[in-house]
Amino acid sequence: MSANQLNEFQDLVSNLLLRHRSLLDVLSKFDQSNASVHRSVVKAVTECGCIEIHAHKQEITSEMSMEEAQEAIKSHVKGNLCESCLEAVSGQLGRNMFYVSALCNLLDLKLEHIVEEEAKRCSTLGLFNLS
């Protein structure tokens, strides 16, 4: 998504956000939408079965090169979302992004700037940026 598209989306959310202009209301709606993302992924596993989770300890060390670590790390996910689950998960993620953008609007933050700063942080910290 380009910076222009992020700005356009944030402006659209600002124009559409009539009922939920309260910061507390948007925070609660964001939490609800986040839970809905989780639930749609869980349903893809437990009800549909289009994806499976095979979790185990990730075996990486700080001594590994980036390439070695990428080969060692597994996603735990087997399979692919079916069309129905893809639509459900994508829709819930979109709703979640709506409330992220709404929070940015209410706190006078630019989504574009947040994404740029996070990209810089990720590229600076590399593989272990979320440790």
UniProtKB/TrEMBL annotation:
This is DUF1573 domain-containing protein. It comes from Marinicrinis sediminis.
